[in-house]
Amino acid sequence: MIIQFKQYDSVTRRRIKQIQQLAAKQQVGCYLVGGFVRDALLRIKSTDLDVIVDGDAMALARAFAREHNGKVTVYPDFLTATVSWDQAGSLDFTTARQEIYKKPGALPRVKQGDLRADLFRRDFTVNAMALQLTSSSRGTLIDHYGGMDDLRCGRIRILHDQSFKDDPTRMIRAVRYEQRLGFQMHRSTLQCLNKSVRQGALRTISLDRYITEIKKVGSEFKAPEMIGRMRRLALFHRLVGTAAISKARIHRIQQRYQRLNESARSEAGECWVIYLIELLRNVSTARRQELMKCSILSKGQKQAITQFAKCKLETKVVLKQKKMKPSQVFVLLKDNSSLLVWHAYLSTASAILKDNLESYWNAWNVKLKIDGHDLNRMGLSQGRQVGAMLEQLKMKKMDGEIKSKSDELKLARELIKQELGASNE
């Protein structure tokens, strides 16, 4: 089977041609592999180029970077190099390799292998196909493990029975691909997954690796379906321990996701943290403390999890009672994590609370056009007074009482006159 690249944009086609030309010049075999090949066969647009090299991938990557003004980063332990450009993405070159797992859940050791071994180490058959880029057979599909048949039948299938034990994160990835592509796990794959769950395979990986996979799930368009499927397959135990996750909680998460999709707010990019907060609702203090050690979580994300556990957004009751001035809402909420505020917005059916939270976001973005130097020129010199005056002006602007720079200057003169007059009495 020959695959053409006409469906791709000019940048992707040019990159593929550049790889072909350099590989031919250096007389090394090159193949496109993984998700790009799968998506090409499904006629899904993809720019995620992953190149396998029959030879020294790091040397080929360095040569490619020199020829095309890229920056190269090498990972010798993994026989991999990445060429990147500031405005044009990146490209991975990997020496064909095989993996050795010292124990279940451990990161693998790699050594140089051939293409067949490289494809066999992959997670699922639909990701274990390659496209020949060099020689007279370029564009030819290489499919040693039945990936094309599984694509036609809509199946997610592992390549061997130890796959989930070697790398338990593949269980979460199986759900992602299944739901994203509208496929189903092959019966034998589902049996292996259930067996691995019962044997506690997920406990062999770190929370950081687990949460990395949750982040990927939360970033998917079909995240609600994935989360529901993960609950049914008991894949949340590594995160929540013995705490139960009910169908009702999954339904709440799905509702929040729908609201995120209906919103154009930038916080939607961190929706996976909002899912995480909801999933952690009933976990033990010890499990939360373990999460606080995860390097994958930022300081702000950890703050949101901690504040939610302590019900820090206790001002929610006040905010539900009446429409408040934006400045009042800002003062109440400014010390809370923005993620926690966003979670409250998605959780409530109260129109008053939603209005107040919208006011908070609008107020957060208010900026003055004057600064401390302007106040100094008007006669206000002490740093503390200047800071307090700017804050007062900002509150007025939040509430719409002043709008332009001239409004700010006019009010500042009046307030300074009052301030200086009071200090002279």
Furnish the topology, listing elements before pairings.
Layout: H1 10-26, E1 29-33, H2 35-41, E2 50-54, H3 57-67, E3 71-75, E4 80-84, E5 90-95, E6 97-100, E7 109-112, H4 115-120, E8 130-132, E9 141-142, H5 147-153, E10 155-156, H6 163-166, H7 169-181, E11 184-185, H8 187-198, H9 207-218, H10 223-232, H11 237-240, H12 247-262, H13 271-279, H14 285-291, H15 299-309, H16 316-321, H17 326-333, H18 338-347, H19 351-364, H20 372-377, H21 383-398, H22 405-424
Parallel strand pairs: 2-5, 10-11
Antiparallel strand pairs: 1-2, 1-8, 3-4, 4-5, 6-7, 8-9
Structure description:
It is a single chain. This protein is α+β, with helices and mostly antiparallel strands and 425 residues long. Among the domains are: 1-147, Beta Polymerase, domain 2 (2-Layer Sandwich), CATH 3.30.460; 311-364, no CATH class; 372-424, no CATH class. It is 53% helix and 10% strand. The protein has 22 helices and 11 strands. The chain has helices at residues 10-26, 35-41, 57-67, 115-120, 147-153, 163-166, 169-181, 187-198, 207-218, 223-232, 237-240, 247-262, 271-279, 285-291, 299-309, 316-321, 326-333, 338-347, 351-364, 372-377, 383-398, 405-424, and strands spanning 29-33, 50-54, 71-75, 80-84, 90-95, 97-100, 109-112, 130-132, 141-142, 155-156, 184-185. Strand 8 (130-132) and strand 9 (141-142) form a beta hairpin. Helix 7 (169-181) packs across helix 10 (223-232). The termini are far apart. The model has no long low-confidence stretch (mean pLDDT 85).
